[in-house]
Amino acid sequence: MTEPSPTSGSTSDQVEVEPEVVQPAKDLKIVIRLREQHTAAHELWQQGMSKAVIGRKLGLHQATVRKLVNARSVDDVVAKSLQRAHVVDPYVGYLHRRWNEGVRNAAQLYREIRQLGYPGGELAVQRHLRRYRTGRGHAPDPGPKPPSVREVASWMMTHPEHLRDEDADKLHRLRERDPELDRLTLHIRKFAAMMTGRHGDHLEEWITDIERDSLAPLASFARNLRRDFDAVRNGLSLPHSSGAVEGNINRLKMLKRQMFGRASLDLLRKRVLLTR
């Protein structure tokens, strides 16, 4: 006669069996730390200490002490902690890409992945990004270095025909991404055309366009030009130039710095007269 199967009987008589807790690797630092904290917290709790006292004694937050004391076993604490630690995993690729694009603010990245369905909290995102800030763990590739402000300014100030193809392509991509940078480049090139082509008659139109735009620093420059409008317009129109005078002034200043404290005024005068 065969023995009845242990699973036989009505469904209501069956005892719900909880799934076994998967034991994580014991050499993980987080597992070792949680086990030590769980043991110490329960020992102090059995001695009659309050959770606040236990927290101060172990250097833990009261919420952490409450989690340790109320847990049925240390395995529950470990399982929940590891689950929270890996809740960011499905969004690691997105976080890496945004990190490489220069976005390093954890709160902003948290808001972005929340819109993608991320169910965890901001603290898990902060912990994931911390390894890259401190150099621990596997950090994402830094990606290409973004151009400096000096480089971008140089590209905008250089005549388009004199730009290298590589630099022209980089500037083109930047202008596509930033409408304000695109307008700034256009304004700068129009002003450069006035200077090189001596089109001072276009100055009024250029200043008006700048005043209608929302580029505050360039608007301040345009206001200063309007204060001395006639002189600026003449400088952009007439063939006369103060370049030779400025060159001689710079030469005299250089000689003065070289001779300062080393010779008398007579020697300085003689050198200025003889130096071309």
Secondary structure elements and pairings:
Layout: H1 29-46, H2 51-58, H3 62-70, H4 74-85, H5 92-100, H6 106-115, H7 122-134, H8 149-157, H9 165-177, H10 179-197, H11 203-212, H12 216-227, H13 229-237, H14 243-259, H15 265-274
Helix pairs in contact: 1-2, 1-4, 2-3, 6-7, 9-10, 10-11, 11-12
At a glance:
By secondary structure, this protein is mainly α.
What is the overall number of helices? 15
Q: Order of SSEs, N→C? A: HHHHHHHHHHHHHHH
Largest sheet: none
From the spread of the alpha carbons, the general shape counts as elongated
- Which strand-content bin applies to the residues? under 5%
- Structural class by SSE content: mainly alpha
Rg value: 36 Å
Average of the residue pLDDT scores: 78
Q: Low-confidence parts lasting 5 or more residues at pLDDT below 50?
A: 1-27
- Roughly how many Å apart are the termini? 124 Å
Number of strands: 0
Helix content: 55-70%
Structure, explained:
The chain is an all-alpha fold and 276 residues long. Helix content is 64%, strand content 0%. Helix 2 (51-58) crosses helix 3 (62-70) and helix 9 packs across helix 10 (179-197). It is elongated and about 95 Å long. The relative contact order is 0.04.
Summary tags:
0% strand, disordered N terminus, 64% helix, single chain, mainly alpha, 276 residues
